Amino acid sequence: MDAKTLILDHAVRHFAEKGYDGVSLREISRDAGLNAALVHYHFGNKEAVYREVISRYLKALNEQRLENLRRIDPNLKGKRRIEALIRGYISPHLELCGDEKAHAYVRLLARFVMESHSLTDSIYTELLMPIRNQYLLALRETAPNISTDAVVRVFSFAVMLMITAPFDGSYRTMSGRDAWPEEPEDLIDQIVGFTVAGIADLAEASGAGIGKLG
Predict the structure, then answer these.
(1) Is the pLDDT of residue 193 over 70?
(2) For the HTH tetR-type domain, which residue ranges apply (predicted)?
(3) Between the CA of residue 169 and those of 112, 165, 180, what are the distances in Å?
(4) Cα separations (Å) of 75 from 72, 94, 149, 151, 160?
(5) What DSSP assignment string belongs to 144-200?
(6) Hey, how many other C-beta atoms are within 10 angstroms of the C-beta on 207?
(7) pLDDT class for 213, splitting at 50, 70, 90?
(8) Minimal CA–CA distance to 85: which of 201, 202, 208, 214?
(9) Is the pTM of this model over 0.70?
(10) How far apart are CA 155 and CA 150, in angstroms?
(11) For the domain 55-212, what is the CATH superfamily, name and number?
């Protein structure tokens, strides 16, 4: 394994456990068994390491999300199209729960969306918003009688469930089971069903009804 990949593999675990502000490059280099100067050589500073750690996963996820969007049958309408859209966005992330090597990233992204500073805002705008906007546009076209604000809100609920459900302490307390999904597809189905029901309720309230969406 080359030094750059080794640094990133160790950095993701540290950022996932402690967040951006709680980690130093010295810790990462020590854990990777490398000289701190080598980390500076490859990345320059901590911000660059963090950006690369986040980017290498988000870019791959967004490629899959874009492919999922392209594959949706244009003849799908109403509820079935909304289901396909929500599933197409959340599945790539939640399927990582079934990949042990990606568990640290799943934890890292949960931290990432909760941490608010200029760096995370910049990464969010650069890497997440373009693909999210494509999905939001598709949802708006499918549910034209629902306000843009309401569609954004419901989609945001779905995204937050996607990110936080594997760490849901209340689920663990009430069920006595680990919130981390043994079968990611089951959790995907639950979030899709929950979100589609929310949009259907908004459609009914608008007088459109789920059958008249799109």
Answers:
(1) yes
(2) 1-61
(3) 18, 9, 10
(4) 9, 27, 26, 21, 29
(5) TTS-HHHHHHHHHHHHHHHHHGGG-HHHHHHHSS-SS-SSHHHHHHHHHHHHHHHHH
(6) 8
(7) low
(8) 214
(9) yes
(10) 9
(11) Tetracycline Repressor, domain 2 (1.10.357.10)
SS3 state of residue 209: coil
Q: Return the structure tokens found at 114.
A: 């909760």
Give the start-to-end residue ranges of the domains of the chain: 55-212
* pLDDT classification of 120: cutoffs 50, 70, 90: confident
Owner of token pair 């701190």: 36
Tokens of residue 20, six digits: 């951006």
Cα–Cα distance measured from residue 119 to residue 87, given in angstroms and rounded to the nearest whole number: 29
Inter-residue contact 191 to 161 (CB < 8 Å): yes
- Contacts of residue 184, defined as CB under 8 A and 6 or more positions apart, other chains included, come to 94, 95, 96, 97, 98
